[in-house]
């Protein structure tokens, strides 16, 4: 995926902008951390994290606790 495609993908849906902003300050975090910080729903943030995971930008460290870590540098 080219840089332009990544940018278009990220800006395509606003929830995708939340994950990089949150991980900029906290490279390892839980869904609940982002929910508290942004006042978005658990479902909304979980879906965004799943999308980033599918693209290889983050990885789930603990599926039971839904702890995530950034695996690539965000633009």
Number of E strands = 3
Give, in spatial order, the strands making up the sheet with the most strands: 1-3-2
Q: Class by helix and strand content?
A: alpha+beta
Helix count from the secondary structure assignment: 4
- CATH topology, by name, is Arc Repressor Mutant, subunit A
Helix content: 55-70%
Largest sheet: 3 strands, antiparallel
Walk me through the topology.
Layout lengths: L2 H10 L2 H11 L2 E3 H8 L3 H14 L2 E5 L4 E4 L5
Helix pairs in contact: 2-4, 3-4
Task: Give an account of the 3D structure.
This protein is 57% helix and 16% strand. Helix 2 crosses helix 4 and helix 3 packs across helix 4. The protein is built from four helices and three strands; from the N terminus they run H-H-E-H-H-E-E. A three-stranded antiparallel sheet has the order 1-3-2. The protein starts with a helix and ends in a 5-residue tail after the last strand. With 75 residues, it is an alpha+beta fold.
Output the keywords.
single chain; 75 residues; alpha+beta; Arc Repressor Mutant, subunit A; 4 helices; 3 strands; globular
How would you summarize what this structure contains?
The protein has 75 residues and is α+β, with helices and mostly antiparallel strands. Helix content is 57%, strand content 16%. The protein has helices spanning 3-12, 15-25, 31-38, 42-55, and strands at residues 28-30, 58-62, 67-70.
């Amino acid at each position: 995926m080219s840089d332009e495609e990544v940018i278009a993908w990220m800006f395509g849906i606003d929830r995708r902008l939340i994950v990089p902003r949150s991980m900029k300050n906290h490279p390892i975090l839980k869904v609940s951390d982002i929910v508290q910080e942004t006042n978005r729903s658990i479902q909304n943030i979980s879906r965004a994290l799943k999308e980033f995971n599918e693209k290889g930008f983050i990885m789930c460290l603990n599926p039971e606790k839904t702890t995530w870590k950034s695996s690539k540098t965000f633009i």
